[in-house]
Sequence to fold (251 residues):
Amino acid sequence: MEKRFSNKVAIITGGASGIGKAAAYRLGREGATIALFDFDEELLKKIVEEFKKTGINAKGFPCDISNETEVSKAVSAVEKEYGKIDILVNSAGIVGPTSTKITDYPVAEFDRIYEVNMKGTFLITKYTLQKMEKVGNGRILLISSIAGKEGNPGMVGYSTTKAGVIGLVKGVAKEFAHTNIIVNGLAPAVIKTPMNENTSAEQLTYMIEKIPMKRLGTVEEVAAMICFIVSDENSFSTGFIYDISGGRATY
Fold:
């Protein structure tokens, strides 16, 4: 496999499962040193050992991205360990209630989703950028969703927070466009991940029917696109929301 990421240090949040794990694996196989962030410490240890057996240089950093103190400490620990941070892929996120109208949607659930999907994205972006800003170089990719572009009925918390991620990408990218720090987003349609295990069958059927290819995407397909977006090859694209939706995206 091509070693596009030799001598690069990459933070991957939500790195113990799903898209985050697949992206970390692909980046690691292409030469990156991987700092895996996840709140599930036991699973994190297991995945780090799994990666090491394949020759990937990986270390786990237990972190709840909705907690500012934990995020600040974990990002600083990565910088201290490796001397720099070249790449951030923020894949941590939760779905919350599905097939639930806004009139029935619990406020506590909305707050919980906001804490992870929106506040967590803000925090990890802020503290990673503080490190990248020192050298004026870096690649940041924030995972949004087609739900953030088009809205999924019955998923108001998820759709709203993922739309917020898109706004964050576009605003922050312009703040750093004069540097070599590039900030982009990725909006997948439904991808086969553990995150969707609790999504109602009715909701999944609705989302798959919206996809012209009529299937779920795979984490390997998403990881391949992620690797291009955060590579040095991608040097004149910032503030953009890439599509990996099997033809669903309309803009």
About this structure: The CA atoms of residues 186 and 242 lie 5 Å apart. DSSP finds eight helices and seven strands in the chain. Helices lie at 18-29, 41-53, 68-82, 107-132, 146-150, 156-175, 201-209, 219-229. The longest strand covers residues 180-188.
